[in-house]
């Protein structure tokens, strides 16, 4: 683009697979030339090849020749080589410069045109190969993490379509394909046959109710029947299922299909090794996967719809995975399909799911079958589900305290913290305080910490409370670590407090490093605080970038502050653009500041619009200040009283006030 703007003719072909954003990238790029008065010409009538061949000689300087899907030009069997020769002449002749030729190609076509011919065969693309040499840019199939972070920033600023696509593309990065294929997928669902819609709706309901990605064809076929009206059901052909799956497997733009057949790899085991009990022995047959966009559409559009009877019947007959059955059991309970819930739960239990045994026990308890519930709980606990021991103890606590204590001890041995806490209270109520405290210390969660400190406070043992915090902190309890750090800080032991904060950070407390930095700031150690923030950034804390940038700016280290702000922008902090813009204004770079503010405005940050108005007013470029502010007010950025005054804080020579918050946090200099 810059070469063309400077008067040099050039050609560029963007190569990428379907729906990766090639055309959009080209369109966005030429806006740079559109504002400079360039024209766009897209040859397409009567055919693309004929239009290009006949009219390339008439192209005038300052024209973008738009060859989207360039295979229709360079790959034309009759005119392709002639078009390549005409483009070469257009680009090398100086009488019509500057000209920009912009095209797109799929990788298979690009490879075909640039590949060297066989020595004993024809060379059908010699002119095209010469034309494309050194003029190809490849677009990847996926967005990299940096680009996804930028996309997330726009999504957070209010781009709902982008936010919707990101929920599906954040793992695989194929964001452009999601955006390109989603509308056609929805159209195929809404305008398809009644049987096709029924199968898709059964798949949508299965996914939103917790069934895994791979849906058995037998399940979908049986489940779909009650989604059909009587009229549509009676009109079904004998081979309706084959027709529907063929229809739904055809891809749309972006190489996505509403319902895609999935190949399952065969499971291979050494001779003599049998399948695990939880693994079904029978082959489920063909399985299909619902398009992500339709799945998400179903979650919202069908959120209040209860599946019909055929869905539950098909699930009981064809779904074999215990986790899927448990999810469906929960969904059936929430929709008061209690008989189906019990049947699905029983099937999951028969498949070896201890979780299902516990769910079944709770169903028996709600029905008043206490003996059955307790037996199932004990069975689940013996099968390795530690939570079941705690539930069994709760069921027994009123009627049989001794057996309840036994159940809690079983759960405690299995590592269940709830059982430990319940056991500790039983021991405390029985007067065995040392054993109760030992159980609380062993549980070492937030509940146990509060319970133990309460017990010692009731005894008037304040030193024991402090000791409890220390004991649990030594075992890595994050809340206890906070209390110990606070104790050491209040005692003036800064090094000891820092050591505890570091221990909390190592234990997974993401905010501990920020607390450590604040502690160093309060002590006047800005470099030490900056080092902590940098460590937090390296550990993945995006919010630490903003703190680090403010701290660097506060210290007068503007280059490093700017680097931190730019890194924060890449991490998705829209507000960092405004903060960086203020830095650029202070440095006298109004153009750079306005560019940042415009980008922030486009991302939905109304603060940026406010500051943009101030900059232009200070420069004398706004004649009607009230109209400019009204635009901001209409956008929801400021209340109407801003019309009455405007503080002038954007002069480059302005000295920025700065300092520290009471807790030692650096305040941004604006």
From TrEMBL:
<dbReference type="InterPro" id="IPR011990">
    <property type="entry name" value="TPR-like_helical_dom_sf"/>
</dbReference>
<protein>
    <submittedName>
        <fullName>Tetratricopeptide repeat protein</fullName>
    </submittedName>
</protein>
<feature type="region of interest" description="Disordered">
    <location>
        <begin position="255"/>
        <end position="285"/>
    </location>
</feature>
<dbReference type="InterPro" id="IPR050767">
    <property type="entry name" value="Sel1_AlgK"/>
</dbReference>
<feature type="compositionally biased region" description="Basic residues">
    <location>
        <begin position="258"/>
        <end position="268"/>
    </location>
</feature>
